[in-house]
Amino acid sequence: MSDSGTARIGVTGLAVMGSNLARNFARNGYTVAVHNRTAARTQALIEEFGDEGTFVPATTPEEFVAALERPRRLMIMVKAGGPTDAVIEEFAPLLEPGDIVIDGGNAHFEDTRRRERELRKRGIHFVGAGISGGEEGALHGPSIMPGGSDEAYTALGPMLADIAAKAHDGAPTVAHIGPDGAGHYVKMVHNGIEYADMQLIAEAYQLLRSVAGYPPARIAETFRAWNEGRLDSYLIEITADVLAHTDAATGKPFVDIVADRAEQKGTGRWTVQIALDLGVPVPGIAEAVFARSLSGHTGLRDASRELPGPVSEPLEGAAAERFAARVEQALYASKIVSYTQGFDQIRAGSETYGWDIDLGAVASVWRAGCIIRAVFLDRITEAYTARPELPSLLSDTGFAQEIGAAQEDWREVVATAARQGVPTPGFSAALAYYDALRAPRLPAALTQGQRDFFGAHTYRRTDREGSFHTLWGGDRSEIPAG
Ligand code: NBP
Hints:
Layout: E1 9-12, H1 16-27, E2 32-35, H2 39-49, E3 55-57, H3 61-66, E4 73-76, H4 82-91, E5 100-103, H5 109-121, E6 125-132, H6 134-140, E7 143-146, H7 150-163, H8 182-210, H9 216-226, H10 234-244, H11 254-257, H12 266-278, H13 283-296, H14 298-304, H15 317-353, H16 359-365, H17 376-386, H18 397-420, H19 425-438, H20 444-455, E8 459-460, E9 467-470, E10 478-481
Parallel strand pairs: 1-2, 1-4, 2-3, 4-5, 5-6
Antiparallel strand pairs: 6-7, 8-9, 9-10
Helix pairs in contact: 1-6, 8-12, 8-13, 8-15, 9-10, 13-19, 15-18, 15-19, 16-17
């Protein structure tokens, strides 16, 4: 191979995310090699933003690789899936042992594990890095969740820290999550939690609208007030902005002219699929994915509109205000439960794949830059930092006390929603999860009895070790099994 180039890092794939990340590196003083399959994008970046820093434009993969200092740091920002594999195949033969390939796209963590394994055979480090914050984050500071080897992180970490968002205490929102696919796995669960957060906020909105009888502008004010307290977060802030917005064409509240059909793309669905594979209960995330899916089933909805439901009048005055305060409690309690489930899924993935993920560090890198950034994440960081072995977030004394204080209102909100026919799958599932965890006995005992009856699946007893089967078709005596 020829002499080393001068670029500290290279970015290939210069659509919105790649070009903004390249600019972010350049603005932080790094010389950045830039490349795109279609050269026009590279030219456009140099023409429009070339004066923001030092860019080395390359038109061929060979030129691009030659522009990088060694060990090379090459970031891929192309469409996830086949395009990422195509780019790896194109560049890998041009690289040398010790070089680092970073995939900042939204890859499935199993793909990242496979790619890491394959490149490791050639001595090349592969870093699957989850990047959250959209195009604004990419430019001004995202939350970054890199996986891969310790060696790669040593060479890369300080640069990622420079371009990452900074939390209120000045800490950069990046941490080495763990080996191979750990970073993309955590990014996936981040998106699952994002789905759950958004669903809970949507349910709070619907309750304030239908039960408290508030118009969107009043609900926007309510969310603004909540954003001053423990719910302070990016999602609550933008919810208030969306609800306060008026449609210019009709003069109606914007939220009333948007079709009520939501999209559910890759990562939310992956989170639930993987949770099922790992046997981790994440009903809050699952209900959020299903709620979006249901909203898009217009045929089913059209055919069901005339089904009977309760008739009720919205609340008024002080009663409406009292109910709104209860909704805040229900939202907060349900949010604690959603994060409990998300962190439990990260713990399960970490154990299954041997990643040794520091849950406190994960909470810490979500404190700024990403979509779920919130004051609340400081609390989670503190809880896991104080007790890394915490069995679940609900075992943290502070969160348990807050749930205890919220539960009466939470139950009342769920009961009111059921009585008035307002669908609240997120609030209800969160409460059911909470009650199931705290139940002294679950009806799973009966389920086991049924399974033994029809399929001789056996059961365990509460009073002694071993598996047992009852001869249901015979004299119903019990025999040891297995
Ligand atoms: P896109 O996901 O829209 O991908 C477009 C880029 O992929 C272009 O540079 C395109 O090159 C390149 N590309 C494709 Br398509 N097929 C290729 C191939 N076979 N070989 C080489 N290059 C190929 O870009 P994006 O929205 O900037 O997102 C980039 C990555 O970041 C994705 O994985 C995305 O999921 C992830 N991400 C996006 C966001 C976001 O908010 N948008 C947030 C976080 C992560 P061309 O110009 O020649 O067509």
